[in-house]
Structures are given as structure tokens and as C-alpha cells.
Amino acid sequence: MGLDPRQFVDAVDEKYICKLCHKVFLDPVENVCGHIFCSSCIKKRLKGDMAKRCPVCSAPLTTKTAQPSMDFRLELLNLQIRCHNKCGKTFPLANLPDHMGDECPNTAVPCPNISKGCKKKIRRCDIKKHVEECDFREVECEACGFVTVYCNLFTHQSRVRCLEKKLKQQVIREQRNQANDIKRHRSQLTKLNVRRDVEDRKAFLEHARHLKSGKHKRHGSIENLSDNQTRDVFLTELVNNQAQSDDGSSPPPHPSRTGHAVFSCVRCKKLYNAMSNNEKACRWHAGVSSVPWME
């Protein structure tokens, strides 16, 4: 069978058309009568039940054919043809085998895994994607590392039960990792708590030290105030006494030093103040004649 004349860029001359298939010659051969036909067309006519004669001159067809002249073949091979796979390329007829075999992205080619059982034919532009998804691609069992084709992987894992073992090992590994993480976290928390305790203790001691120093300062201020008040009292008495001495009269004694405010009980011998004496203080004081003390 020849090539469809509509594939060619320009109109094809009638001398390049096979009289048996009515298409452009493909692998032309010359019959004994001098007419040219496609090699496959002559073989098909000789094997079939149709008339085994030349459709032009009725000469018998035979397998004893010859090659057409070199000029004829060169003219035929220089005809410009479009790719019948609609890839958009145009080229001389002589380049058709190379284009279809190596270049055309739309040409169907066998899967590279044909030796492993894949019988699909895929366009050359889709072969990479198919190889990644092919059921006969080589895969490695993720459980035991055994190499097999993808379609047999499930059978292998079901028979050997390696996937189940792998999952158990993975669970154990995850549990160990989780336990280690918890242990590490607890250790970090312990260190953090110890550090915080030390910092809190330092802060507490520092605060206590500040409080103690402030208390001493306040206590010293109170003592100084008492001393100043006592000193003022005695200075006042001294000034008064000095003034009265200058007048020639004796100074009056301090109320706490006179014998008119403090008394001694005759019976219990205890000192008591008559102004604060009552029955509850000492029953012996009541009605007892008191005598001045330190007269």
C-alpha cells in the first residue's frame, strides 16, 4: 500500500501513482512489462484471487521485479510530504522513515517495559508519563527492599507479610521516639524549674536584705528621736533649774521623782499610784493608809 496523495504539499504527478492501489509509490518495483508498482501491492495481488496481470498492459505479474531507474527514485524521494500523525512537520519523502522512527512526537511506540510484560503502545510524547505509571515498572518493596514489578508487589507483600512487620517496627520506633521526646522534655522542665527556684530564692534573699537594712535605718531613726526627746526634756529642766537658781529659789522636782504620786502599800509593800489605784489592782490597797514614799 502506498501513501495518500493528500499528504503531499504539492499535487503529485500521475507517474508516481501506483496503478494497483492508486496511491503514491512506497518501495516501488518495476514489473517485466516496464510498469512500476508498489512492492507490497504486487505481492498482495500474486497471493490473492484477483487477476495476476498488469492493469495497464495485461502482462503477467511476476515476483521477478527490478528497481526503477535512479532518476525516478530520486524524484520520488524529493517530493515534500506532511506527517500523517499531524505533528505539523513537512519534509522530503526520503526523511519519512527517520521522522516516524525517531522524531515524530505523535508516533505510537512500544513501552520500554515490553520485555517485562507491557504490551501497550504509547505516543512518543507521553512515554515518560506512562513509564512512571506503568503496571510493569520496577519497584522496590518499602518493607524488605525486594525488587519486583508493580503489578506483583501486592502479591509479594501478602505472601511474605513483610509490610505488616515493617508497620510494627515503625510503630515501635515511633513509640520509642515519643518516649525519648517526653523524657527530654521532662529533663528540660526540671532544669527550668531548678533555675527558677534559684532565681526566686536569690530574689527573696535580696528582698529580705533590703527590708532588714531599711528596718535598721528606721529603728535608728526612732532611737535617735527618743534620745533627742529625752535630751530635750533634761535640757529643759536644766534651763529651768538654772533660771530658778539665778532667782535664788529651788527648782520643783519632776513629777516622776516626787513623793506625792507614788506610794508603797503597808501590807504588800508594792509601789502603786494613787491616781490609778482601784479595788481590782490590789484589794489590800483599798482603805489602807498609805504613806508617802521617798519623802
UniProtKB/TrEMBL annotation:
Transmembrane regions: none
Species the sequence originates in: Mizuhopecten yessoensis (Japanese scallop)
All copies of domain TRAF-type, residue ranges: 99-144
GO biological process terms, semicolon-separated: regulation of canonical NF-kappaB signal transduction
A GO MF label: zinc ion binding
Highest taxon in the source lineage: Eukaryota
SUPFAM superfamilies, sorted: RING/U-box, TRAF domain-like
Zinc finger regions, TRAF-type: 99-144
Annotated PANTHER family: RECEPTOR-ASSOCIATED FACTOR, PUTATIVE-RELATED, TNF RECEPTOR ASSOCIATED FACTOR
Protein name as catalogued: TNF receptor-associated factor 5
PROSITE patterns found in the cross-reference section: ZF_RING_1, ZF_RING_2, ZF_SIAH, ZF_TRAF
Residue span, RING-type domain: 18-58
A Pfam family: zf-RING_UBOX
Keyword Ribosomal protein: no
Keywords: Metal-binding, Receptor, Zinc, Zinc-finger
Residues covered by the SIAH-type domain: 106-162
